[in-house]
Design goal:
Blueprint lengths: L14 H15 L13 H24 L2
């Protein structure tokens, strides 16, 4: 059985853009995310960043599909 890494990027070249996006979203929602160690943040804070990233990506994809 192979191990699965959920943080593996499907397109490794996108890592830098995703990191930038993550920092922008964190800033927008007031989470003091920084590069490197963020163990001082709560799981709710970290989860809110990921959740908002997903919401924004879905919204952008829906708009693209509608031709906006």
């Amino acid at each position: 059985m192979t191990s699965s890494n959920s943080s593996r990027m499907e397109v490794p070249q996108a890592k830098e853009a995703m990191d930038k996006f993550k920092m922008e979203v964190a800033s927008e929602i007031g989470v003091p995310l920084k590069n490197g160690y963020n163990g001082d943040l709560t799981s709710a804070q970290n989860g809110s960043v990921g959740g908002e990233m997903v919401r924004q990506m879905i919204r952008r994809q829906e708009e693209e599909m509608l031709g906006k």
